[in-house]
Amino acid sequence: MIVEKQSGENEFADVKAYLDVLSNNAEYQQKKVEFLEYVEDYLRKATSYNVAVAAVEDYILAQCAKLCAQAVAISANVDMIDGRDLVVCLQKDKTPVFDWAATRKEIERICVGKSNVVIAGGYARTPHGEIISIGKGGANMMAALVASALKVDCIEFYVEGEGINGIAAMTYDEAAHYCASDIAPFPSAALWPAKQAGIPIVVKSILHPEFAGTRISSSSEEVGKEISGVVVDQDLSLVTVYGTGLLGRVGASSAIFSALANAGVNVKFIAQTSSEYAISFAVSAKDSEKVSEVINGFVVNNPLMPLDDVMVVNREVAIVTVYGSKMKNIPGVSGKVFSLLGAAGVNVIASAQGGEELSISVVLDVSDLDKAQKGLSILY
């Protein structure tokens, strides 16, 4: 059902006002009028047929993206392509999954031979024609998908800062670790098409495009130190499930994380010792209560798990991740990290390092975050 917001009329007026200032071009203004009439008609029909709110939002926002792209294309006197005609997605567990073969085919069919175009990004379609959002950084993902299919020489992303933290060069893997943070300028998934095709990405400042920015490629020759940088994730809860009921229980981890996935909870960090006595994982703080309900429900519905033994504890934390492509096979990097944290008076609650040896993540109390960042700053 469509749920009308209290400020619905005001929000619609804001949309109209925003669209008014995009362009004074007569052609655009006519498209804007047609767009507003079309959206109002669509809303009436969607209300009559009880269309899901999420589907309505995706459809209208995709139309907004198209109209904004038309404003730019008309002003620049170039062609406009609707990204929904290019990217084909399947929807699995509420997450869009790209059909790369079908997407490549559509990109080649529509884009080959065109040199200057504006593409309305952020949205895709299913094989049945339904409109779905690509998610955060959808425009970046769209650019990477198109560039990869067309085998271009370079991709440029524009962000508010001076590249990525002022770093001159990074590998795809380093950038992926940095972009996993919620405060990253674009999602790490947008790197995948470029990495697969071997196309470098240059992240430049939208305010100062004359700056060199950050070059992302497969080469680590330009990367200087073992540690390239530090990424901080805040507003997190560390959830620890522990008890002898977990010992030797085959499938316990699978059941817990499957239940979290079904509840739409994204897990950002996992740690478990070989004793199998406890599993710790980090989630967004806003999901912490939901996680407790999911885990407690899992325990109650599992006849093999002692109800009075398995405990769930939530704790507000931050995660600091140290990353670098030159960390691999270099002895003592972990020692430096933990020594610096200890010298700064930081207590490490949990830690994890991937087998690829490209990053080390430590979980700490939010009150220790400033001390941790200052203590680790000498590494990069």
Q: What is the element layout, followed by pairings?
A:
Blueprint: H1 8-20, H2 26-48, H3 53-76, E1 79-82, E2 89-92, E3 95-98, H4 100-111, E4 117-120, E5 123-125, E6 131-133, H5 138-150, E7 155-159, E8 169-171, H6 172-179, H7 192-197, E9 201-205, E10 214-217, E11 229-242, H8 252-262, E12 267-272, E13 278-284, H9 288-300, E14 311-323, H10 333-343, E15 348-353, E16 359-365, H11 369-376
Parallel strand pairs: 1-4, 7-9, 8-10
Antiparallel strand pairs: 2-3, 5-6, 9-10, 11-13, 11-14, 12-13, 14-16, 15-16
Helix pairs in contact: 2-3, 4-5, 8-9, 10-11
Can you describe this structure in just a few lines?
This protein is of the alpha+beta class. Helix content is 37%, strand content 24%.
Characterization of this structure:
- This protein is of the alpha+beta class.
- It contains eleven helices and 16 strands.
- Strands 12-13-11-14-16-15 form a six-stranded antiparallel β-sheet.
- Strand 12 (267-272) and strand 13 (278-284) form a beta hairpin.
- Helix 2 packs antiparallel against helix 3 and helix 10 (333-343) packs across helix 11 (369-376).
- The longest helix has 24 residues, at 53-76.
- The radius of gyration is 24 Å and the shape is globular.
- Residues 1-8 have low confidence and may be disordered.
